[in-house]
Amino acid sequence: MGTQQITAPPCAQPVASGVIHSNVRHTAGFTVIGNHLAQHRGLSLVAIGLAVHIQSLPAGAKVGIKHLAGRFPESETRIAAALRELEAVGYLHRSRVRLADGRIVTRTVSFNQPGAEAAAAPAAPRPRVVRGTAAPEPVPAPTPAPQPPCAPAPEHQPQAVLVPSPTARTVPPPPLPQPQALTPELQRTAAAILADLRRHAPQLVLSAADIEMLAPGVATWLERDADLETVRHALSHDLPVRLKHPAKLLRHRITALLPPPLPGTLELAPVRLGVIVIPLQNCDRCDRAFRSRHPGHCRDCRTDLPTAA
User: What is the value of pTM for the model shown?
Assistant: First the structure.
């Protein structure tokens, strides 16, 4: 009876997989963000973070591209693309406004829930009670007179038509860029690039109709001297975790990230202000280069020539 009984140790508790939240209730300095923004499947992480930052700012704060680029490590190009994403889905609205002094500024309106009603219906006015007088007694509602029995309703009733709210704004997507000359070779190359995207990103599986629709946009990139790696990186880099509509995402990136045409040699030539550059000439006698506005002989050859009598 004095022998100690040895029992097996209790089983270890299974470790839960995924994220574990350790939340503390905020009492000051916080912003309420809806899950429709924080878990938006059509926006990039840069656009979601930028929307959260803008909604946390006070009214009148500067949200220009240069100001945001100086505040965050992202470039002006990525911030401009993120602003266009938020404007396309209705979280931002930018407009040009002329002030009283004649200056034109950009007015930015941030919506924490796009499409919601701007204001609730006005409440019914409450009766005013004068101090010292008794409140009026409520008047009983009249009793409705008995109605004769109605005829049975018809079998098919007309259905109500739902009218969309006037405050809901539907922003059409920008048009897909079109090349100046869509040759068969350019069309074939653009279609091959789109079909090959699924080798590098399995989420980008496109149908034949989607490839035919997006091919002119990729052809515009190729027409502007964008190489294969540049196009592939712009379309398949940093994709959302759960991508439902790859064709819509590619259409947005093809339009929003379209690079400008490469500048020519005249645009890249250095500008010299206030300096007159005399062109170079080749000597007609010794073929030596010298600066002169007119062709002829260099300084040494001019001294060797016999002087006129």
Answer: 0.36
